Amino acid sequence: MAAAPLTPAVSERICKHMNDDHAEAVLSYARHYGGVTTASAARMVAVEPEAMQLEVDGQPLRVAFDHTLSDSEDAHRTLVAMLRALPRPDAPA
């Protein structure tokens, strides 16, 4: 099955999944990639080819991707890779 283009409907589906099932990951994106280290709440509001749009503690935040996303599969791979690249708090120094 071919990957879906990154349409507003696909963005909405990704955001719903991330907010419902991976809220801690969204908060981690805000803290690490968005630089809001004191963030206490974050919600993904859009996934666009160049960036994800978050709402962090009630304020909008744009987190740019390292490349322009081509489709839904690229969005999935990129979001997973960004999460895996985060420093792990339980990792030895």
Characterize this entry briefly.
The chain has three helices and three strands; from the N terminus they run ααβββα. It is an alpha+beta fold. It has a single domain, classed as PNP-oxidase-like (Split barrel-like, Alpha-Beta Barrel), CATH 3.20.180.
Q: What distinguishing features does this structure have?
A:
Split barrel-like; globular; three-stranded antiparallel beta sheet; single chain; alpha+beta; 93 residues; 41% helix
Globular, elongated, flat, extended or rod-shaped: what is the shape? globular
Structure class: alpha+beta
Number of strands: 3
Task: Look at the structure and give the CATH class.
Answer: Alpha Beta
Q: Taking all residues together, what is the mean pLDDT? A: 93
The CATH superfamily is PNP-oxidase-like
Largest sheet: 3 strands, antiparallel
Give the tally of structural domains: 1
Uncertain segments: none
One letter per element, helices H and strands E, the order comes to HHEEEH
Helix content: 40-55%
Structural summary, described in words:
By secondary structure, this protein is of the alpha+beta class. The chain has one domain: Alpha-Beta Barrel (Split barrel-like). It is 41% helix and 19% strand. The protein is built from three helices and three strands. The mean pLDDT is 93.
